From TrEMBL:
Membrane topology, from the record: Multi-pass membrane protein
Keyword Nucleotide-binding: yes
GO MF annotation terms: ATP binding; phosphorelay sensor kinase activity
GO cellular component: plasma membrane
EC number: 2.7.13.3
Catalytic activity line of the entry: ATP + protein L-histidine = ADP + protein N-phospho-L-histidine
Family matches, as Pfam families: HATPase_c
Keyword Membrane: yes
EC class name: transferase
Residues spanning the membrane: 187-209
Protein name: histidine kinase
Highest taxon in the source lineage: Bacteria
Region (Disordered): 60-81
Length: 474
């Protein structure tokens, strides 16, 4: 069921209103239908009561001088202007035939009407049957085949028959009346009313909600691209209702404050980098006067380590706000160029299968991420195997090593700044614990992610670490 529920605010609001309106109109239709049914039943009871009461012989106004028919039935005609009623029938037996059942609800209604008119009831029977199965109707049809047509009756319709035997009387007075069908105009009116309500209410609400959701959609898109476009695009123009305008204005102010803080941070980091690199360069020159070659090499390595760590820290600080634009780049060529750098240095790197594909990238940053991952693979696994594959709309760069891997509970922590694992991944092997952090930040900067998983061998043991950079191609 959830698959059919809209996920947007506009869709959910329109669906809720549409369902509420449908429920309300359904309840209204049911109530109107029941009211129409009650009106029909009440009119039917009054019609039957009128026929039974106005029978001239029952009221004693005139006597039927004709002889009884052989079947024991005599008939009298009762007619009111504008009504097409069958003649009231008089019989010595009840109108209830074998196999038929009485209608208690209609009997009670008719009884109340007759009693209010002062009729003393001995016996009362009310039943319903199909018009074409009524003996009196069949008799009239034999005389006049157009009997039903002239009265506008349907042979399949319902005929309600009421038999009254007054107290002290020895004959039954039998009245008949077809049950009218509910007016189709009522249901058609409800349907037309529902359609008009849908057009006016749902259409108007859709217009109002679109004024609200359009600026919210623009704001959502702006927030989703917040990291990559901060400071490079003009502020979002406030639009929509006042609440949405205030929200957009507040967002623009927040974005401006964040941009100012990041600018201040970059200036501060640039100054720190300059102030630290200058004395380090001077110190690198001074150690050349150290006579002990071993000590001089150690000091130079320390200075190089500090310089490298400083570069990593500054790069990590700047990766959140790049200045160079995205450019569509051939990934296979970029991966091959980084592979060739390490191959030229004589490193144990292997380039596996690659597929040609392009993606919007900042090539300099992506090379930095690949170098960090390949360096880690060489440092801890003695070998790096590189591959590039396409999975749907995602480019997957895989770098595998043959090292000891990382325990599952430490994989997430290893991508945090300055995090280092066991003794095989410590400071003495080089690095400050920023390589994976920087690679993850670069991947996320491009809308992708960095995944680390242990490679499992045939015996179930760990045979190395697999690093994947997954990038969207669109």
């Amino acid at each position: 069921m959830r698959r059919f529920v809209p996920k947007s605010l506009l869709g959910q609001m329109l669906l809720a209103v549409a369902l509420a309106l449908l429920v309300a109109q359904t309840i209204s239709a049911v109530l109107l239908y029941r009211a129409e049914e009650n009106r029909i039943e009440s009119g039917l009871a009054n019609e039957l009561a009128f026929q039974l009461i106005t029978d001239r012989q029952a009221n004693g106004r005139a006597a039927d001088r004709r002889e009884a028919r052989p079947d024991g039935v005599r008939q009298r005609g009762q007619r009111r202007p504008g009504l097409r009623r069958v003649r009231v029938e008089r019989a010595v037996t009840s109108p209830l035939a074998q196999g038929e059942s009485r209608d208690p609800a209609r009997e009670e209604t008719l009884r109340n009407v007759l009693q209010r008119q002062g009729v003393v009831i001995g016996e009362l029977v009310v039943l319903s049957r199909q018009i074409s199965q009524d003996p009196f109707v069949l008799q009239r049809l034999r005389r006049n085949p157009r009997f039903l047509e002239r009265r506008g009756w349907s042979s399949e319709g319902e005929l309600v028959v009421a038999g009254l035997k007054r107290q002290g009387a020895d004959t039954w007075v039998i009245a008949r009346s077809p049950r009218p069908q509910p007016a189709r105009r009522t249901m058609i009116g409800i349907i037309i009313q529902t359609l008009i309500l849908y057009l006016v209410l749902v259409g108007g609400l859709a217009f109002l909600l679109r004024r609200l959701t359009r600026p919210l959609a623009q704001l959502t898109k702006r927030v989703e691209g917040f990291g990559g476009t901060l400071g490079t695009e003009p502020p979002l123009e406030p639009s929509g209702p006042q609440d949405a305008r205030r929200l957009i204005t507040a967002h623009n102010a927040m974005e401006g404050r964040i941009a100012a803080l990041l600018d201040e941070k970059n200036v501060m980091l640039g100054a720190i980098g300059h102030d630290l690199k200058t004395p380090l360069a001077a110190l690198r020159v001074r150690i050349e006067s150290v006579e002990n070659e071993t000590e001089r090499a150690r000091m130079a390595a320390t200075i190089e380590d500090i310089t490298s760590s400083l570069d990593d820290i500054l790069s990590l600080a700047r990766v959140g706000r790049p200045t160079d634009p995205l450019e569509r780049t051939e990934l296979s060529a970029l991966v091959a160029s980084v592979f060739e750098e390490f191959e030229d240095m004589g490193e144990n790197v292997v380039l596996g299968e690659t597929q040609r594909m392009a993606s919007p990238l900042r090539a300099t940053w992506m090379r930095r991420a690949l170098r960090n991952l390949i360096s880690n693979a060489l440092r801890y696994g003695k070998q790096a195997r590189i591959a590039l594959a396409r999975e749907g709309d995602t480019a997957v760069i895989r770098i595998a090593d043959s090292g000891p891997g990382i325990s599952d509970d430490q994989i997430a922590a290893m991508m945090e700044p300055f995090a280092r694992g066991d003794t095989s991944r410590n400071r003495s092997t080089g690095g400050a614990g920023l390589g994976l952090t920087l690679a993850r930040a670069i991947a996320e900067q491009h809308g992708g992610k960095l995944l680390l998983t242990n490679r499992i061998g045939a015996d179930g043991g760990v045979v190395g670490l697999l690093a994947e950079i997954r990038l969207p191609l669109a």
